[in-house]
Amino acid sequence: MFKVIIPKFALKELSKIDKKNQQLIFDKIKDLENGLFANDKPLKGKHQGKFRKRAGDYRIIYLKENDVLLITVIRVAHRKEVY
Length: 83
Hints:
It is a single chain. This protein has 83 residues and is of the alpha+beta class. Helices cover 28% and strands 33% of the residues. Strands 1-5-4-3-2 form a five-stranded mixed sheet. A hairpin with a 2-residue loop joins strand 3 and strand 4 (58-65). The chain is globular and about 35 Å long.
């Protein structure tokens, strides 16, 4: 089981999203907490070392630190503006 940290600015981005998509995103964050990383993709270029999880038209960008079983959600935004 992982500990998931969601910083205030990510929560602020999440609060601007409609309720239906918010629920989908929270379900995906629960998957991260339970260690379900299927279909997550590592990012390249300047975002190397980070991963993305798809939640409908939204993406959850996160950093996984295996040593301490910690996941930090970096950004939650629509797929056209997240990168």
